[in-house]
Every structure is written in C-alpha cells, then in structure tokens.
User: What shape does this take?
Amino acid sequence: MTHPDHLMQRLCGAILGAGWRGLATLLAPALRLNLWRRVRRGKEIAACLPQRRGFAPCRRPAGRLIWLHAASVGETVAVMPVIGQILHSSAEQHVLVTTGTISGAEILHARLADLPGHERVHHQFAPLDVPRWVARFLDFWRPDVAALVESELWPNLIAACMARHVPVALLSGRMSDRSLAGWRKAACLLRRMLSSLAWVMARSKEDARRLVHGGAGRIDLIADLKDAAGPLPYDPAALAELRQSLAGRPVWVAASTHHGEDAEILQAAHLIRQAVPDALTIIIPRHPQRGKEIADLSGGPVPRRAAGQVPTVRDSVWICDTLGETGLFYALAAPVLLGNSLPGCTGGGHNPVEPARAGCALASGPGIDNFRQAYARLGDSVRHVMTAQDIAQWVVSLIGHAGAPAAAGDAARRHVLPDPDIARQVAQALITLGAP
Assistant: This one.
C-alpha cells in the first residue's frame, strides 16, 4: 500500500510539473527572442538556432544510440573517456552528444579528431526545456538511453523521456547545499525528477547524500568522471613552438580567470616582475571574449594570442584568449593559479585535477565550493592565496628557484593519477540500460 505522504508528494510533483510545462510553453516566444540576443553577444550560432528548438542538423544513424548531454566545456571534457569506451564496445553503438554552449561544441569536435570510431559520434545543440521542442528532439533521435551530466536536471526533458520509456541516467551528479536549498519551493518537482532516474552516479559522498535527500531512490556509483581523464591534450608541435617563443623565460599561468579577479592578477604580475625581471604572466580567461577587456584593464599594450601576438622580453603579461588550448599551457608545467576562486568574483573554483595531472604546481583562492573533494585529495600540495601579494610571493618562491616548480608539480600529480575504470563502468551501465 502506498503511504499517504508519498501520494501527496507524487500529486505535488505532478502539479508542479504541469505548471512548469505550462510556463515553459508560455515563455517559448520570449525564449526565441533571447536566443537571438545571445547570437548578437556571440553565445549562439544563428544557423544553429533551429537545433535549440529541437530540429536535428543531420540524419539519425541506424542502430543503437546513446545520448549524452554535457552543458559546457567541463562536462564535455569529462564525458570524452566514456564516449571512447562506448565506441570501443561495439561498432554498432552510436553516440549523440548535446551541448548548451558553443565552447562545449568546439571542444567536442576538437577532441573527437583522434578518437577511434569518432564518425559514430553526432552533435547537436541541446533543445531548450520547452515541451514541444523537447518532443521534436526526442521523436527524431529516438535515443535508447539518455545521460545527463552533473546538474543538468530539466523537468520537461526528463518527463518526456519517461513518457517514451527512455531510461535516464545522471552522471557525476552534483548537488550543492545551495542548489538543494534553491529547490526548496519546488522540492516535490525535484523529487519527481530524481526518483524517475534509472541510474545515478554521484560525484562525491556529499553529493550522494544531497541527491538522496532530494529524492533519488538509490546511488549506483560514487565517482567523479573527471577522475577518469588523463592530462588535457595538446599539439606537441604547438608546444615546441611555444617553448621556442618563450625562450626559456620563467612563466606562470593564471588559468580560467573570471570577471572580478583580473585586477588582482595584474597587480600580482607587476609585483612578480619587480622580483624576477624577465618573468611572464600568462592569463587564460575562462571566456575568451574577455581578452580585450583584460588588456584594456592593464592600462597599456598587452599582447593577445587571439590577435596572433607573441610576447617580447619587454612584455610582462600575455593574454591567451583562445579556445581549447589550456592543455597546451598546462604542458609547460609552470605554476598555475586557478581562477573563479579569488575574492571579487562569484567563486566556486575550477577543476584542479587538470593542471595537477600535467605536473603543475597549484594555487587557488578561497572560492572552491564546486571542487572541494578534488582539493581535499590534493591536500597541502595546493597553496591557498587571497591577495596579489600572496600570489606574487608564491610564484616568486617557485620560479626563483631552479627545480622548485617541477618538484611541486610532481607532488600534486601523485595525488591525482587517472582511474580509467570509472569510464568503463559508466559506459557499461549506459549500454546495459539501453539494451533491448
């Protein structure tokens, strides 16, 4: 017999789900206008806008199809080992990857080039969570299984999959205390979504606890997809060219920086230059379109990689505002400060495993809420900084002493050796879910 409380929760979830469907339908015209605004801001591609309304850009392949949805760059990179395992499992397996950002799509296409069987991987920009658009997407692609990465929980999409008997998995599920609190007024809707998932992988024990509290019936695996990946790829020829252009100068990297922390990083670059006169600061903005903004903030001419400019010995800062080259700069094994973590920006941090696997000494600001487990693994191999003075002191202590960056980088790398078995387990679970 079903408990009355459970009946009430199901009824509440159904009512909220219906409300969400109605609201999304009413907002569809406004969402179309917003897509065009995003085109003008460079965040959408005009020719691809029909994909956001569920229209497919190509024909559906014959045979089994596993659909993976990765919101942006980080999620796309995380699922690459899983894609490789799926393709390796059978020549009959096809993969559809949807992304929500241009950068995610570009990273996917760049990484697929060297992946055996990549011709069986198809890409489309994800439809927005409007019932008619989601239905159009699902009716065309007819996936055998769907997998959502990290926190991509969309009520209409999940409900439409359930109506079509498409099993839905959550990979590397992420649920922070803040996110869980944000769902408080729609807790029944969250429970409805989480309880309908066929397979749940939580990124950490803390995420697992919150997902269960939110309504997940069970947790099938606790692991982080990012732990399955090796170092970020790069072009060896490009690395050789980069080393030649740097001519042995001491360098450090401020990676994946966000608005609000540029001034502190530029001040650190000035202080470092005073202590080490030929030092070069490489700034890699998380969003490449911010390159000019950072250059203007510096108050003087600063070379930008996106403009084809290479730093001279007189330049103390080089803004590397290109997409998909972070692995190239990590391959320098220079000290790396991870952005989106300093006071002054929204915080949350970025994944420290990627530079650590490349043998980079690491520093971060205090804003690491999104990656606490990864930072805990790295322990005291990560330097925590707050100010430009902190950053400068850390960088000078490394680049001012031969062998110090390599020793610190090796210490970090030992904590984050990749675990390829995670990707194998996830791929096998998806293949099993999608089996007839």
Residues 4-40 form the longest helix (37 residues). The longest strand covers residues 64-70.
